[in-house]
Amino acid sequence: MLEVLRRVIQEVNGARNLDAALATMVRRIRKAMRTDVCSFYLYDREIEQLVLMETIGLHSQAVGRVSLRVGEGLVGLVAEREEPLNLEDARAHPRFRYFESTGEERYSSFLGVPIIHQRRMLGVLVVQQSEKRRYDEEDEAFLITMGAQLAGVLAHALATGSLTRPTLPGGQALFNGVAASPGMAIGEVVVVAPLADLNSVPDLIPTDVEHEIVRLKEAIGRVREEIRAAGERLANRISVQELALFEVYQQMLSEAALSQEVEKRIREGQWAPGALADVVRRHVLYLERVDDDYLRERAADVRDLGRRVLAHLQEETPQIPDVFPESTILVGDEISVATLGEVPRERLAGLVSARGSSTSHVAIVARAMGIPTVLGMVDLPLPRLSGAEVVLDGHRGRLFVRPSDELKNRYRSLIAEERALAEVLEHEQDLPSETPDGHEMPLMVNTGLAIDTTVSLRKRISGVGLYRTEVPFMIAERFPGEQEQARLYRDQLESFAPMPVVMRTLDIGGDKDLPYFPIDEANPFLGWRGIRVTLDHPEVLMVQLRAMLRASQGLDNLQVLLPMVTNVDEVDDALRLLDRAIRELGEEGIEATRPRVGVMIEVPATLYQLDALAERVDFFSVGSNDLTQYLLAVDRNNPRVAALYDSCHPAVLVALARLAEASARLKRPICVCGELAGDPAGALLLMGMGFDSLSMNAPSLPRVRAAIRRVSLRAAKELVDETLALNTPSAVRSHLFGRLSEWQLAHLLPPRD
Predict the structure, then answer these.
(1) Catalytic-labelled residue, pool 283, 361, 395, 649
(2) Is the pTM of this model over 0.85?
């Protein structure tokens, strides 16, 4: 049966259109299952009916004419319950309904399975037999598998409008991904064709090594010029913080990085395109296995640069259109920052990519530019989307293809409301983050790149709540030296002095390894990472601690944060190394004082060790994203399960409330850095729970500040009490929306269904 299944799937995928695919499927299924009838009913949302779309065994004239409501007849029952129905005598079932035009009165047995795509019921697949027959488990499993296969085919057909039945006007379809940049847009799709294929470059021995090196340098030079030009086009549209990402591209292309490594490979006996492909694939392979969302997305940057250089080596040009529609929704398998810079900003309305997550470079720039973006959108029929009208919802990670007039009008209204709100909020961004009853709620910012500093933020924040130190390690071919790290850390500390800058020690390991420090594990999410790695390699941690201490000379605004702590022993060991670094610098004539040290609360085990930890450290910092993922066992960047990730899950909120209470008892300041802190409703909850500060991405600051300035601390505490009594994430979200509506703050939240 498995071989039959493979053949059927292959034929269906190779069909020239949906009608041919359906005809192939019903005929092959009937033959494989040795049954009399196989039929497919499609759920038409326009008329809210299940329509007979294809059959072999029933009367062909019934196709497109027979329809029934969800819950009506046996087919409607399958759709209503969204589960298989297997009957030996269908006519004896109380829900059986006879349709004269189908001729199905001759059939006794019935097996129906629902067709479901991303939790949406699309139709029902049915087989029938004239004599009484109880389809066995293998039959049922086979039909369920075929239904799952048909779900993807149908979703693509709905998206592209290839359903031509008169009962299906419009063919509106919905695709879900990971929300990466908030906002909404209505526009026309422009599909970005991929650049040169790094995986199809043959291995060739160069006849002239020096010529290959010259070719490589010329190609890299052209790409550097392209990146420079793209950056200049965006210079007046994004801040220095985001514009610095183009400098990161230039650093990757520099002699000390990509160029040098590829040149070495050429001298080892590989022609330029092959050497480039080898080096890029190796870096991408390492980066894609990374657990940290921010660092994993660097794979996209490396791959994009590699493709661009390869295109010039192959004398190809990137497939970017010359003319863009007035409201362009750029769609591609993977969209880079450089590609973004090649589209006229006044025509760019939104971005959609099959790859990527909210921490990718393109997401960072998109947020800075105010461009709605959804990434990680699987199942997109890219080649057939070009020119389609779409509605993009960057708040909820949705793309509506061929939207109805009603949906478009609704989103036009929502877009107008958002624009008006942004103008209002901008006027109060330099005002204090203080509640009406006088409670100050410090707001801090998360930074990632070494140059993620901007003077414009200084007046709006209370410091840096999380600085990721991993980036210098990712763009090097070796562990960066002490002086090298000290210069980078000094830039950060000076930029925000005298405000505190919380620097997290190197968080690598497990599936977050470095190109020059690979680690292979069966379960990397629970593996060798964070403090576990650096304590096993104290020589690496010591260099970093010494560099931080050197960088803080005369500034005294450094705070050190230890990631992925599970045991108290790990903290003791790290503190001993810190004291040793201070002693060593003292022996070298450099007087260093011990900075404040904190522990990152992201492993659930730390929730039960707070008393012991408080005896050792000065503050706590909650990594709400990772803590939520570990508590709920959900990868938030996996679009197939992302809906289960919810930082407003009651279990998460109870854990956070108890954590804040314990921190107050232990007299240890506690900060939250993560998406919950950047959500206006979440920020009010955290303030009411008693957290001392909130750290978030810069674009989240305006709405959070507006919420805090309009809700008293007393009201926030009452909100916490009410919310903790609820049992489901949906109930929590509904209650938060209701309360913010009462306070006339619902406009600060993402739009609701």
Answers:
(1) 361
(2) no
